[in-house]
């Protein structure tokens, strides 16, 4: 896991080029407003992480006994899911 770099808005504004070079080199930069994370700057060329979900075969009897586990490869956008669940909150 990459080291997260936190920087205040003013520091980022004053040294924007230097921080963007670090992002280009692969670092994540988190911009904070009064110690509250506000934005995250990440490299555009980074591949999205793919999460592999494994479904465990349960102990069952009857017709379900012949089912096999399924590997699901999906990109999960947790923020979108939370926004959808929370609605207008």
List the helices and strands and how they pair.
Blueprint (H helix, E strand, L loop, with lengths): L3 E5 H6 L1 H9 L3 E6 L2 E6 L9 E4 L16 E4 L3 H9 L3
Parallel strand pairs: 1-2
Antiparallel strand pairs: 2-3, 4-5
Features:
89 residues, alpha+beta, YefM-like fold, 2 domains, three-stranded mixed sheet, two-stranded antiparallel ribbon
Poorly predicted runs of 5 or more residues: none
What summary fits the major beta sheet? 3 strands, mixed
Oligomer: single chain
Mean pLDDT: 78
CATH class descriptor of the largest domain: Alpha Beta
Question: Looking at the structure, what is the overall shape?
Answer: elongated
What is the total domain count?
2
CATH architecture of the largest domain: 3-Layer(aba) Sandwich
Number of strands: 5
Number of helices: 3
What is the CA-based Rg, rounded?
A: 21 Å
| Class computed from helices, strands and strand pairing | alpha+beta
Topology-level CATH name of the largest domain: YefM-like fold
What is the share of helical residues?
A: 25-40%
Please state how the strands of the largest beta sheet are arranged side by side.
1-2-3
**How far is the first residue's CA from the last residue's CA?**
32 Å
Written as H for each helix and E for each strand, in order along the chain, the element string is: EHHEEEEH
- Percent range for β-strand residues: 25-35%
């Amino acid at each position: 896991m990459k080291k997260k770099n936190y920087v205040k808005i003013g520091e980022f504004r004053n040294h924007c080029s230097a921080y963007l070079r670090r992002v280009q080199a692969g670092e994540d930069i988190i911009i904070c407003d009064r110690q509250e994370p506000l934005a995250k700057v990440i490299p555009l060329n980074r591949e999205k992480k793919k999460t592999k979900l494994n479904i465990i075969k349960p102990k069952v009897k009857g017709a379900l006994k012949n089912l096999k586990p399924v590997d699901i490869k999906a990109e999960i956008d947790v923020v979108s899911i939370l926004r959808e669940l929370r609605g207008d909150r």
